[in-house]
Amino acid sequence: MTLHTVYAFPSTDSLSEGLNDYVERLSREAINSHGKFTVAVSGGSLPKLLSKNLASNNAVDFSKWHLFFADERCVALDHADSNYLEVKNQLLSKLGGKLPDANVHTINPSLVSDPEKSAQDYEQQLKNVFGSDSTPAFDLLLLGMGPDGHTCSLFPGHPLLEEKKKWVAPIFDSPKPPKERITLTFPVVNNAKNVAFVTAGEGKQDMVKQIQEQPELNLPCQRVQPKSGNACWFIDEAAGKKLSKVQKYKL
Ligand SMILES: O=C1O[C@H](COP(=O)(O)O)[C@@H](O)[C@H](O)[C@H]1O
């Protein structure tokens, strides 16, 4: 297992500032090289940390973004559990329409009662943007980390960790509610050009330490090993308190 670089920040505000700089740079590089920026984001605590500085960053050309969800709960888009709703409330609603609705790739709301079909439909949405010939290579995945070491909706010990063919898979028995979800799978996650985990707070410090210092656990976050991309962590001081080795992010 290759160890991920960990950038630790003294506060959640400075974490958001560093993350803003990182996303701005990757967005600019991707748009310069191939005209668009493909990014998938997690739900949970991440959208708030992301939006703090990014929402008002006029140097980012959101009109060229294609925004996907790293995982989604099978609920209506206006349901309190929806990852989309959190991203909408924290980020999209603050962009004044700069990111076109057509480029925000939500799950199909008419399929939420059928996770299997919902996952197939979402995989087709990926094909529409990336083409169907080869595994999508996202410019950036912004991922959260659950206190059990899960990421996306890929949970420790779950058979979905071994999925090799599907790009998007349904899950019917998520240990964290709601049970029914869809998620990007490891073939897609590990084909990304860049992956950044974003996590903060004391509640995450034990798991952050285990992930960095006990590779033998083979937890979902540790299995994120992009084949030819980079993986790093943006954490605050509280989440990194038990780590012996962190790096300073240079703005
Ligand atoms: O259920 C989920 O949890 C994870 C972690 O969330 P957090 O609130 O502990 O940051 C999140 O990354 C994922 O997208 C979400 O569906």
From TrEMBL:
SUPFAM superfamilies: NagB/RpiA/CoA transferase-like (SSF100950)
A Pfam family hit: Glucosamine_iso
InterPro entries xref list: 6-phosphogluconolactonase_DevB, 6PGL, Glc/Gal-6P_isomerase, NagB/RpiA_transferase-like
Keyword Hydrolase: yes
Top EC class for this record: hydrolase
A Gene Ontology biological process term: carbohydrate metabolic process
Involved pathway(s): Carbohydrate degradation; pentose phosphate pathway; D-ribulose 5-phosphate from D-glucose 6-phosphate (oxidative stage): step 2/3
Reactions it catalyzes: 6-phospho-D-glucono-1,5-lactone + H2O = 6-phospho-D-gluconate + H(+)
Keyword terms: Hydrolase
Leader sequence residues: none
EC number: 3.1.1.31
UniProt GO molecular function: 6-phosphogluconolactonase activity
Domain Glucosamine/galactosamine-6-phosphate isomerase: 11-233
Keyword Transmembrane attributed: no
Annotated function: Hydrolysis of 6-phosphogluconolactone to 6-phosphogluconate.
Family according to the record: Belongs to the glucosamine/galactosamine-6-phosphate isomerase family. 6-phosphogluconolactonase subfamily.
Alphabetized PANTHER family for the sequence: 6-PHOSPHOGLUCONOLACTONASE
Protein name per Swiss-Prot or TrEMBL: 6-phosphogluconolactonase
